[in-house]
Design brief:
With about 250 residues, the protein is an alpha/beta fold. The protein has helices spanning about 20-30, 65-75, 105-125, 155-180, 215-225; strands spanning about 10-15, 35-40, 55, 80-85, 135-140, 185-190, 235, 245. An 8-stranded mixed beta sheet has the order 3-2-1-4-5-6-7-8, with helices on both faces. The structure holds NADP nicotinamide-adenine-dinucleotide phosphate.
Length: about 250
């Protein structure tokens, strides 16, 4: 019978702590695991969330952040849950593309920078600190629209391409780290459409009851993580824990 990997983490690392889901996840984690050490990373500062909370200001898009984050992590307990919330869909000069003509190198590169590099750099910072006998859950917040098989609508080129690339990063990491860490589960999670700045411009077409509050999505994500089993390693999961095809 399979067992959960870590249902009650002692140290949690969360990146992208100032976003809509990052903020809600921090609140949920402090509530559910008040004794766990909470380590957060964001491009901006964050007030102390609990007595065990430590925060680092760093921009994970930059390669230089790998060393900064690693040096900081060396002074902390080894995290056994890691949640990376970083992601981008739109910004001042960019709305998701409806067709090929609207694609630009600049938008694609910026999407890859935030949707992929922020996760790659966090993994690179953590990798040398992992121990064979220290269980690990890694969750990258990804998106269902990054699933190639699930794509029946088209559009949103930069977001879809960069999330598909993130999904491949997660899959690779799940293979590499399961060889190094005895009890390891690396997954990508689709949080469901959540009321945050990322989804704001696209909320008018969402069917009733399908736009979730950040607090509800955070509860669901934490519940999925607490129930992960080693057999879930390398999966893309829906917010209820069911698998989505890559
Ligand atoms: N909301 C949804 O409906 C929805 C649906 C599917 C998937 N997701 C995914 O869920 C994750 C969280 O999204 P959210 O809804 O919470 O969006 P959000 O409120 O816009 O937060 C975006 C996050 O990305 C980080 N970020 C943005 N630009 C960055 C940059 N240039 N460099 C580094 N980090 C950057 C922010 O971190 P800091 O500001 O803390 O540095 C923040 O955590 C994303 O990966 C998103 O793709 C969301």
């Amino acid at each position: 019978m399979q067992q959960t990997v870590i249902n009650s983490p002692e140290c949690i690392l969360l990146a992208g702590a100032r976003g809509g889901l990052g903020t809600a996840l921090c609140g949920e984690l402090v509530k559910r695991f008040p004794d766990a050490v909470l380590l957060t990373i964001s491009r901006s500062g964050l007030d102390r969330l609990s007595v065990t909370h430590q925060h680092l200001c760093a921009s994970l898009e930059d390669e230089g952040a790998v060393k900064t984050v690693r040096d900081w992590l060396r002074e902390q307990p080894i995290p056994n849950w890691v949640i990376d919330c970083c992601g981008i869909l739109h910004w001042r000069d960019h709305s998701p593309e409806k067709n090929l003509q609207q694609c630009s190198d600049e938008a694609l590169l910026q999407s890859i920078s935030v949707n992929v590099l922020t996760h790659l750099h966090l993994a690179q910072a953590l990798a040398p600190l992992l121990l064979k006998r220290s269980p690990l859950v890694w969750a990258s917040l990804s998106a269902k629209v990054g699933s190639i098989e699930d794509n029946q609508l088209g559009g949103w080129y930069s977001y879809r391409m960069s999330k598909a690339a993130l999904n491949m990063l997660v899959r690779n990491l799940s293979i590499e780290w399961s060889r190094r860490v005895e009890n390891c589960c690396v997954v990508a999670i689709h949080p469901g459409t959540t009321d945050t700045p990322l989804s704001k411009p696209f909320q008018s077409n969402i069917p009733d009851g399908k736009l979730y509050s950040p607090a509800l999505s955070a509860q669901r994500i934490v519940s999925v993580l607490a129930q992960l089993q080693s057999g879930d390693n390398g999966k893309l999961l829906f917010w209820d824990g069911s698998p989505i095809p890559w």
